[in-house]
Amino acid sequence: MKRSSINKYIDEASAFFSAQCFYLPPFATWTPDKWARCAGEASEFRNCRLGWDVTDFNSGHFESVGLTLFTLRNDSISSNNASRTYAEKIMFVRENQVTPFHYHVCKTEDIINRGGRKAGRLAVQLYGRTENGEFADCRVSVNCDGIRREVEPGQAIILGPGESITLTPYLYHMFYAVDGDALIGEVSSRNDDDTDNYFKEPLPRYPEIVEDEVPLRLLCNEYPVVSEA
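^ that's the sequence the OP posted. Answer follows.
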């Protein structure tokens, strides 16, 4: 992905969140210079991968295969002594923009349509997983806002504003927005995007970046590391 595109997509996501009256914490607007000045005191942001996350999964086609997220809270992805056992994200899912099929081994997550007026719905397509990692040819049972639902393999559940779905480990899921762009929340157990994303078709979680202009915001995997004396 080009850095100029990432800058643009973050600006568009920020505007969308504001239009939906969802407000990000102050560090969402930190510049690279601010991160450099605050590298020592901002270790939690770095260790927990909080902040902006823009990816096209190296597809080269962000508008159709990609996602813009902001991680609001999490525990350190490198710690075995979790002080915070939960995570939260907010996502800007563009209409018909696909996050490809994947599952998690450790994470359980609630995916929530937090959108309001004029926001889109979210289609979540589901498959079970066989022992060798393929799609299972059997019905899928999931919890949607306290109600158990069963769907055919590959069927999509559509989430309107306020509705949610609980995704458990080893459940393949793919999602995209319909009827407009969608404001989507995620509340989960500790999130580790480095090791707990298993894509049906092998894909990198973070994109390769072409530095065609300076970054306006750093991504969550780009924060400066404090050098030890």
